[in-house]
Amino acid sequence: MLIAETIAVALGALRANKMRSLLTMLGIVIGVAAVIAVVALGNGAQQQINDRISALGTTLLTVSPGQRMQGGVHTGGGGARLTMDDALALEVRGTKILAVQPELQSNFQIVFGNKNTNTSIIGTTSNYQQVRKYEVEFGRFFTYADDQTRQRFAVIGPAVATNLGLETPEAMLGEQIRIRGIQFTVIGVFKTKGASTGFGNPDDQIVIPIQTARFRVMGNNRVRSIGVLAPSEAEIPETMANIQLILRREHHLRPGSNDDFNTRSQSDFLNTLSETTQTFGLLLAGIAAVSLVVGGIGIMNIMLVSVTERTREIGVRKALGATKLNILFQFLIEAVVLCLVGGAIGIAAGIGGATLFTVNFGWNTQIGADSILIAFGFSAFVGVVFGVYPARRASVLDPIVALRYE
Predict the structure, then answer these.
(1) Best exposed site among 12, 28, 157, 333 by fewest CB in 10 Å?
(2) What are the tens digits of pLDDT across the range 287-345?
(3) Does pLDDT of 43 surpass 90?
């Protein structure tokens, strides 16, 4: 019964100063809300990256130009090159390769009627859909025959039509666009892939046959990258070794010299981006957690003020038989209740904030139960840590001195 009475006295003291209690909780509310919202944004971004890279296929390898190295230093002359001859060698001599898809890429201004926009132009082969996991929503993709005969066909991303002021992407089908002054016919529109993840918007690009790109648009055979499909995930190491062997021969690299190209799997991209996103998320969560500490300091300050204001009350309670433990328990309860109530309000505010980010800005958020429990538990921990000193100070007051306090 004594414990229940102590709790009732503590809660009564908080109710007697509602505004002060609310302002004291504000730091905890902001801290918990910030932690939950930031962690939700970080988790959402990481999940979006995972989904995007997984959608490209787990057996996709990307070969890109590296740097010419000798003895651990750059030999100069710029970066190494990958050419169409390299892609052809992989296609002809590859024994552990399912498909080869080279890409030429550059940014150009495109003109449609009296409108224009800048976008990424990709010259590639007819197996682009198979390798890169793109789907055509309207129209069709160009064929091998279209590529070999250097047809001026284009397949556009839905964002291109939007940038040109069209409400519906399918309205571009059959229309003529100009790329570097050369007229192309739009024969297809890709299905949307979603927003950008830092590597360019996959919906804001135009794909044309690679032979057309080589001889009519870009005028060279230097490829940006070569996509290679391994037969299975288990055979990825063998495929990478096969790529290395073929390209080293093509580039006439001596034994012991470094590769002048890089081969990356989707899992490499996934791990790198996940680690970066996780580190950034933890950094933001740590910054947000600082406000919890600031809120705890505010609670300790207010509790010290409360002890000073209620010195006579403490003296009366001790004179009536209250022990040091009773007084300690009373003030500790006040501090913990402030933190727990502030934590509960902060959880609601954090979830609401994450939801607003999703609804209003289209950001992916993922609220985890672990972040809620950690934030709530940390707020209780703050209440205990920063409430102990004021509570102990109140409990050791001499009752005679306290009664005489004005």
Answers:
(1) 12
(2) 766 777 777 787 788 778 777 777 777 788 778 777 788 888 877 888 888 888 888 88
(3) no
Beta bridge partners of residue 206, listed in sequence order = 121, 156
Contact indicator for 163, 119 with CB cutoff of 8 Å: yes
390 shares its domain with 286: yes
Strand pairing partners for 60?
Answer: 229
- The H or E element spanning position 62 is strand 60-65
DSSP helix/strand/coil, 81 = coil
User: What are the structure tokens assigned to 69, written together?
Assistant: 């190295």
The first and second tokens of residue 170, run together, are 């399918």
Tokens 């995930």 appear where? 233
Angle between helices 266-309 and 18-55 (to 10 degrees): 180
The 3-class SS string of 247-308 reads HHHHCCCCCCCCCCEEEEEHHHHHHHHHHHHHHHHHHHHHHHHHHHHHHHHHHHHHHHHHHH
Helix runs in 106-228, H state only: 128-132, 144-148, 158-163, 210-212
The helix or strand, by DSSP H or E, that contains position 111, with its residue range, turns out to be strand 99-112
Q: Are residues 98 and 241 in the same domain?
A: yes
Closest CA to 330 of 385, 405, 388, 404: 388
223 part of a folded domain: yes
Compute the radius of gyration of the chain from its Cα atoms: 33
pLDDT digits (tens, 9 = 90+) for 116-167: 999 999 999 999 998 888 899 999 999 999 999 999 999 999 999 999 988 8
Measuring CA to CA, which residue among 178, 173, 165, 156 is closest to residue 110?
178
Distances (CA, A) of 271 to 2, 267, 268, 275: 57, 6, 5, 6
